[in-house]
Amino acid sequence: MNPAPKTAAPRAALNPLNHIPAQILCAQDYEFLARQFIAGPSYAYIAGGSEHDITAEANLRAFAEGCVQPRLLCDVRDAHTRLNLAGLDLPHPLLLAPVAFQKLVHPAGELETARAAAAMQSVLAVSTLASQPLESVASVPGVYAWFQLYFQPDRAVTLDLLQRASAAGYRAILLTLDASIQVPSFRAHRAGFVMPEHCRPENLAGYPAVTASQPATGESRIFQGVMRHAPRWDDLAWLQAQTDLPIWVKGVLHPDDAVALRERGVSGLVVSNHGGRTLDGAPASLSVLPAIRKAEGDDYPVMLDSGIRSGMDVFKAIALGADAVMIGRLQVYALAVAGALGVAHMLKLLREELEICMAMSGCANLQAVRQTRLFPSPIE
Amino acid sequence: MNPAPKTAAPRAALNPLNHIPAQILCAQDYEFLARQFIAGPSYAYIAGGSEHDITAEANLRAFAEGCVQPRLLCDVRDAHTRLNLAGLDLPHPLLLAPVAFQKLVHPAGELETARAAAAMQSVLAVSTLASQPLESVASVPGVYAWFQLYFQPDRAVTLDLLQRASAAGYRAILLTLDASIQVPSFRAHRAGFVMPEHCRPENLAGYPAVTASQPATGESRIFQGVMRHAPRWDDLAWLQAQTDLPIWVKGVLHPDDAVALRERGVSGLVVSNHGGRTLDGAPASLSVLPAIRKAEGDDYPVMLDSGIRSGMDVFKAIALGADAVMIGRLQVYALAVAGALGVAHMLKLLREELEICMAMSGCANLQAVRQTRLFPSPIE
Amino acid sequence: MNPAPKTAAPRAALNPLNHIPAQILCAQDYEFLARQFIAGPSYAYIAGGSEHDITAEANLRAFAEGCVQPRLLCDVRDAHTRLNLAGLDLPHPLLLAPVAFQKLVHPAGELETARAAAAMQSVLAVSTLASQPLESVASVPGVYAWFQLYFQPDRAVTLDLLQRASAAGYRAILLTLDASIQVPSFRAHRAGFVMPEHCRPENLAGYPAVTASQPATGESRIFQGVMRHAPRWDDLAWLQAQTDLPIWVKGVLHPDDAVALRERGVSGLVVSNHGGRTLDGAPASLSVLPAIRKAEGDDYPVMLDSGIRSGMDVFKAIALGADAVMIGRLQVYALAVAGALGVAHMLKLLREELEICMAMSGCANLQAVRQTRLFPSPIE
Amino acid sequence: MNPAPKTAAPRAALNPLNHIPAQILCAQDYEFLARQFIAGPSYAYIAGGSEHDITAEANLRAFAEGCVQPRLLCDVRDAHTRLNLAGLDLPHPLLLAPVAFQKLVHPAGELETARAAAAMQSVLAVSTLASQPLESVASVPGVYAWFQLYFQPDRAVTLDLLQRASAAGYRAILLTLDASIQVPSFRAHRAGFVMPEHCRPENLAGYPAVTASQPATGESRIFQGVMRHAPRWDDLAWLQAQTDLPIWVKGVLHPDDAVALRERGVSGLVVSNHGGRTLDGAPASLSVLPAIRKAEGDDYPVMLDSGIRSGMDVFKAIALGADAVMIGRLQVYALAVAGALGVAHMLKLLREELEICMAMSGCANLQAVRQTRLFPSPIE
């Protein structure tokens, strides 16, 4: 037994529990407890958004608007949280978002997360920048995984990643498009964070190093430098031609992009600002969700990530237009505290919190949640 | 004489005063003073809402919106606070809300509250979970009481409670419908609160223990577990068939529920979120009141509870659509400080505060308050 | 010379300066500096509003809304702050509000204020509850004074006050109608304030003591007690019949009252909530001003008091509909710091601050200020 | 090497670095770091606005409204920040605002700033109140400068300044019209700031001292004193007749003034409240920009200053109607930290921050930024 004392200093060495700590009352408690299980600079890196955390904080604040209005005397004995997401039957709408470098908080990293995903029948999105090889993660028994893809500067590398993912049994490609430019976290920087040696992008280990292209004199380091390698619409078309796997796109914040992606045959979207980790000053994911749902119509698959901390947050996201949500930071916090057990427990808590909201607001299924209006409704 | 020193530490042993303390200037002062008369964990349990106190705090904030606009030169020499509530003549619109386990703050618990109710001609709602038997409370001389009913898992038990209440002289059933799921208070939990041995639900003492039904594998602990015993519309119909007593429903937050309850013959409603003690994230009671009043029309009996701390709050609740209000936490605080004397004094202060608002805004009766618009009006 | 050290503790004995302190940069600085010249409990009494100071604080916050939009290249060489207020030519729109018991902060009390009023050609309103006799105040050379009247329980006393004021040369009656009920200041009470012996209502000294009427059993202490003596419309009519002096009414907060008073021949109004000292929870004076001006039309005399701390506040009050303003608390603070000199200096600073606003926004006179719209305009 | 320790006390002697400090991550970091390079009273003078800093703070807050909505898959390989500003081709929209007395923070003062302007191809506006002679500043190799003009009490002096500026090669006159009255900064005053001996208005050194005109008795020190020398429309017409240089006007906050200036042939405007240093209580520059742009039409040159701290702020200013922006305080902070190198580095950071916003929102040029709507849009 190894109880986590409430006042422990942050630990330098990772030492996750092998049991569920008694002080966890709700899913968000993993966020608070994780401070005791993650070294300070690493915690700053994980918790921080880009630059000043403006968008990271806006993500949380957005969920404070709108209330869930309880209903009385409803019959929810046959209620459930099942959904069909683009043809896939799921027991609940809680997917695990792609998170890079999970060895930062747990010695087994992504393998533990995969075990939790399998236990909870949760779709797992594995990052291109995972600290465990994509093949190892996919081989965890019972896991149902999607591969999160970043376009690589060299199309051959991108293609190889795609083929490896397909060969390893990944069921879909989750293409992240909002991170063409790496924007630093000032919070992580001030905390002195540097990625430790043992956290490497294992999936990219075998590929030749890319020489960053240098802009010519008078050219912009951004426009003619970094952005030269940023994905464009023709890259998406190329990718679609290389694979039969469904392709989802993550990082959508504008209705016009949402419409264009749907029209080009993308399987579904994740409305996301990368947890506030790309453009600091971008709107909260939840804030743009209603307009995107409206632009896409009721039936197109749309998920939300960024800012979910409770089952009520999940309820609100669905009420405002999401079919399902992806869980990022809570996943990392739970992983740090208690490995696979923690992640599974966190998902179970989130699900029950969602079920309580549904039961008390008389929603017998997620379709009913989708038709619920928050009070006062932010959409109108 | 036993004055309460201003800086006293919270007391472990209950020691209510037998006089009104000099430092009480307004009804809300009982809230502040009660910290010296209630043990810390118990205070956390009483003051706290469910989970993060979001709704409990929203209840208070809602009363900060809208101002009472003074009027000049009005004749209020014949003014009064009388009302007819569903046929019942009352001298003022301040009812005592059902509060469980009152022995937690006073050795005589509900008996003291009943004495105050009798003294102030205030309707007393006695909780199913009272720590004194319902028969004892009803036998306090001069008391006019309603019985607050929770549906029990076994209809026979519910029926027996109903018959006992009727036999003991209760005048109405106040059916609480918003608490199908017990949501814990994180504040109380963090404070280490556990209900003391001597606080028992005396009314339920004689009934067989109920075995909680266990959901089957793959079923939800919420939907197929807890909610299996939650009341449904047919339970209400069944209850109505068992008694001739008027039935009021407490816990209404949605206009559609309000309409349905009226159409089914319920005598009146209490708009309430249980003082923020059920679904954390539900709207403030006051915020949903105008829409409910509008849905019910002007004449249907509607009360409000949750958040009242002053006579001006009472004024605002009535101006926004309530016929009367129920007082919960202030009742407990006053009980803790000075027993029946405290509760009666608190009611007297509330009433005078209401009268001052009426006098200064030129309202000679509660009907005039109902027709008053707050500035700026939150309804329009 | 007796400079006020910045960190001095509050003084028990009044010791106003006989010069203008160097650290005063703007009119509001008298508010801050006065803490060093007024005993703590007295300061709490003066600064506090009724009960929780909700309205007192709202008065200040209301002035933070709306900006003054500068204009360029305007010719203001002939600009001035003159006005004609109900037939009276004034050099500036800054009147001195009635403030009771001024000996609380200065040994000579109202006599000093009168000297400042004379020096600055400011109309002085002398309180029924002045701590100097109304005759003495009126005899200060050069003073132009109005008599602030509270209706007395006995009409004979009211009439006598009226006749004394007329005989002493007061030019108008300023009838305060918003204080039928004395609402205590919790701040003053907590600070232990009691009115000192030497602060007496000198004007009422000679009249027989009034026995407060006691409500009968079952009657309300408010409605059948205090309010029995509150003024009503027929009292106003009676008063109008007793005097040829113009009658102004102070304490108007509702457009319907404003219209009724105008229709009954009252000479002008003061929109006021008594500096937040009557009904706590009433709206800010400034907030109700636009609707009252709209109800009265452009030409009826309307003043504002409550919350003025700067010349920009004066500008905003006029832009929102006031013809002039009354200065209450700043008058007391300046009196405490430096007697007549302080009050005169405070008025001079306010006037220059107003002139700066006018000059920078291109307003050559107060009529132009009245036609200015704030940005963003709170009226529309 | 001379690294700036993080906890250093403010320095009395100026000691700018001759390298770029490592801790600068973004342009705004110069603001924070500058506290270590500027004496406390001087910092208060520079950072403070007039009086209570209300407008100075509003300038910053205004930029917190509205989000930049990222776009996906855009091709920005040919993107740039070039613009044509009233016929002048510029590589970026970042101009250096006129700032007086730059020797206050750097021994070489304006000469250093001019070197940075030349290096970054940034238009430099040199203040009438520069602490280096206008001729010296203009002679810095490669500089492209405008002369900021304050009307002088004596037209002959104004004319001489104009002719000197023309002779020295200044390309335009930037006429500041919002500072007819000097409003003190209470923050600077409380900090004990006095302008040091070595900071003199060198450009005015050779002219005869002006005797301030004294208002007659009964006249206003403001209207008949200070404002007697304030510029008026005929002064503008006179000025236009004296020079062929383009004349821009700085300090516009009202659409009617903007229209009038355009109609009189002024070449362009700077929407500005002087960084909050003139009328305290004036609106934020950004807040009035949309209405001014709307009044002027799409093509008239309009710049914004006051409140810019980041490239995202620049993006927002352009999206709300500006063609370009002027940088004031950041210029001074960077000058204090590292002289010309600091100012150039600050401009480079701002430009890259702007480019990142453009790249991530899919804007290939400033015209596209102008057509972007912020989320949620403050204009509609």
Structure description:
Chain A is an alpha/beta fold and 380 residues long. Chain A has a single domain, classed as Aldolase class I (TIM Barrel). Chain A is 37% helix and 10% strand. The first copy, chain A, contains 14 helices and 10 strands. In chain A, strands 3-10-9-8-7-6-5-4 form an 8-stranded parallel sheet. In chain A, strands 1-2 form a two-stranded antiparallel ribbon. In chain A, helix 4 packs parallel to helix 13, helix 10 crosses helix 11 and helix 12 crosses helix 13. Chain A is globular and about 70 Å long. Chains in contact: A-B, A-D, B-C, C-D. Chains A and B meet through helix 13 of A and helix 8, helix 9, strand 7 and helix 10 of B.
Concise synopsis of the structure shown:
By secondary structure, chain A is α/β, with parallel strands linked by helices. Chain A is built from 14 helices and ten strands. Chain A has helices at 29-33, 40-47, 54-62, 110-120, 134-138, 155-168, 186-190, 221-225, 233-242, 255-263, 285-296, 311-319, 329-360, 366-370, and strands at 83-85, 88-90, 94-96, 124-126, 145-149, 173-176, 247-252, 268-271, 302-304, 324-327.
* Average pLDDT level of chain A: 94
Q: What is the H level of CATH, i.e. the homologous superfamily of chain A?
A: Aldolase class I
Instruction: Indicate the CATH architecture of chain A.
Output: Alpha-Beta Barrel
Alpha carbon gyration radius of chain A: 20 Å
Outline type of chain A = globular
* Strand order in the largest sheet of chain A: 3-10-9-8-7-6-5-4
Helix percentage range of chain A: 25-40%
Q: Any idea of the CATH topology of chain A? A: TIM Barrel
What string, H for helix and E for strand, traces the elements of chain A in order? HHHEEEHEHEHEHHHEHEHEHEHH
Structural class of chain A: alpha/beta
Tell me which oligomeric state these chains represent.
homotetramer
Could you tell me the strand content of chain A as a percent range? 5-15%
CATH class of chain A: Alpha Beta
The chain pair with the largest interface is:
A-B, 28 and 42 residues
Largest sheet of chain A: 8 strands, parallel
Give the count of structural domains of chain A: 1
Tally of helical segments of chain A: 14
DSSP summary, beta strand count of chain A: 10
